Amino acid sequence: MSAARRGTERPSATDTGAEGPAPMPAHTALEPAGPGQQSQDGPQGPAQEYPQERQDHPQEPEAAQQGGAFTLPRQRQDSVAGPAVLTLLVVGDDPTGAFTAPYFQEGSGPRVRVLRARNLTAAGRLLTDDVHCILLDLPDVLERLPEVLRIAPGTAVLVLTDGPDLDGRAAEAVRIGAQDHLARESVDAPTLTRAVRYAVERKRADLAQRQLTESRLLAQENSRLERGLLPTPLLEGATGLRFAARYRPGRSRALLGGDFYDTVRTADGTVHAMIGDVCGHGPDAAALGVELRIAWRALTFAGLGGEALLRTLQDVLVHERADEEIFATLCIVDIAPDGESADVHLAGHPAPLMVLAGQEPGLLPFEEGGPALGLLPDAYWHRIRVRLDAGWSLMLYTDGLIEGHIGEGTLRLGQDGMVRITSRMLAAGLDGEELLDAVVTEARNLNGGELTDDVAVVLLERHDG
Fold first, then answer.
1. Taking the CB of residue 169, how many other CB atoms lie within 10 A of it?
2. How far apart are CA 353 and CA 335, in angstroms?
3. Less crowded by CB within 10 Å, the N or C end of the chain?
4. Are the CB atoms for 295 and 302 separated by under 8 Å?
C-alpha cells in the first residue's frame, strides 16, 4: 500500500460486543528487495514500528544478515516522536472484515486507532473523550443516527454505505447530522485516514460555529433584556431635577442579572423612582425584573402607589416566578411636586442614601421597612416620610455595591463603607454621573477587581436655584 500502512493484528475483546485495539507487533520481518527493486512500502524503505528496546541484546547489529530475512533493530518507543493518534469507534458487524486491523495510517500523518463495537450498547461502554470519530456500519443507520448524536454530541460521525448512494440514505444521514459518508469498497488506509481527519475537523468547525451563533443570540437577548431593565426615565416637566444612573454587570457570569430601575413623573407633578433586584442571575431573573419594572410603571401612571402598589407587584411576582423560592427586593421613592418631601417604601431593599445641603450623607430610616416581595403573602410595607430641603440628593442602589470585599479578607464594604466613600467624593466636588462612576470604581478597587454581583445605582438631585 505505497506509503500508507495498515495494522495486521485483530484487536482482542475487552467487553461483550466491544473490542479494543490489539497489542502492537514486537518486530516486523521483511524480505529484502532484489536488485533494482523497491520494497512495497516505498522507495524510502519500509515504514517502521518502534517497539520497546531489547535489554538482553543492546548491541544487535542493524545490517541485514546474508542470504535471508533481516530483523529491524529494537528501539525505545519514547526515543521517537510518533504522529498524533485519532481514535475511530466502528459500530457494526463489519461483515467484510475491513476494520480488523488495530490501526490505519497514511504516510507520516496521524495514526487512526480502531475500536470496534457490534451495537450501540457496546459502543456506549467504549465511548469516552478519547474517541474522535464514530463510524456507523448499521442497516438501520438513519434510525440509529439521532441516538448517536444525542449520546455523543461533540464527536464526529461517519456513515458507511454499500456502493453509490442511489437511495439517498447517505445524503440524508449527513442532513441529519453526520459529517460525511464513506463507501465500503473505498475503505483503505489513505481514504479512511483522510475521511476521519476531515470529519473531525468539520465537527470542530461546526461546534465552533454553533458556539459563536449561540453567543451572538445570547448577546442580542441580553441587550433586549437590558433595555427593558434599564429604561429611559420619563421626567418631562420636572424642573430643577437631575437624574443619573449606572449599571455594571458582575464578574461571576456573562449573563445579565436581575437588577432594574425606573423613574417617571406623573401628571400631578410627583416624581416616582424605584430600584429593585430579583434573586438569581440569567435570562429568567432578568425577564422577571423587566416584568416588575413595566408593571410598576404602568401601575404608577394608573394612580396606584404605596402599599397597594407593592402588594400588586407581589401578586405579579408570585404568578410569574419559576418557583416559590424566587423573591425580589424593591425600594420606591415618591417625591412631592414641590420637592420638599418624599415617601419611601422598602421591601427588603437597602435604604437609600440622602444628602441634604450643608449636611453629611446619611442613610434613610429603614426600621419600618417590610419584607422582600414574594416571601410573605400577608406582608405590610409602612410608609417612611422624609423631609427634604431646597437642595438635596437621593442615591438608590442595589446590594451588589455594598457586598464587595475590602482587600483579600472577609470584611465587606457594607453601607457604612459606602457612605464614607460617597462623603469623600462629594467633598471633592463630584456630582451626577461623575459621582456614581467614582463611587462604583472605588468599591471595585477595594474589592480587588470586578464586583461579584451586578450593581445598579440611581441618583436624583435637586440644587438651590
1. 14
2. 15
3. C
4. no
The residue whose grid cell reads 437590558 is 226
Grid coordinates 401628571 are at which residue?
Answer: 267
Beta-bridge mates of residue 160: 182
Structural domains in the chain, CATH included, are 4-209 (3.40.50.2300), 230-462 (3.60.40.10)
Place of cell 404605596: 306
Return all residues near 416 (Cβ < 8 A) that are at least 6 apart: none
pLDDT single digits (tens) 75-124: 334 333 444 889 999 999 877 777 877 888 877 778 899 999 989 989 98
Report the greatest alpha carbon distance in the chain. Answer: 115
Distance CA 162, CA 164 (A): 7
Q: Which is nearest to 225 in space by CA: 293, 296, 297, 280?
A: 293
pLDDT band of residue 47 (cuts 50, 70, 90) is very low
All three cell numbers of 129 = 473523550
Q: Write down the pLDDT at residue 297.
A: 96
Residue with cell 544487535: 60
**Helix %, strand %, coil % for the chain, to 5?**
30, 25, 45
Does this model's pTM top 0.85? My answer is no
Q: What is the pLDDT of residues 159-218, one digit of tens each?
A: 998 877 778 888 999 999 999 998 888 888 888 889 999 999 999 998 999 888 887 877
Which residue bears the cell 486507532?
A: 113
Q: Phi and psi for 186 in degrees, rounded to 5? A: -95, 5
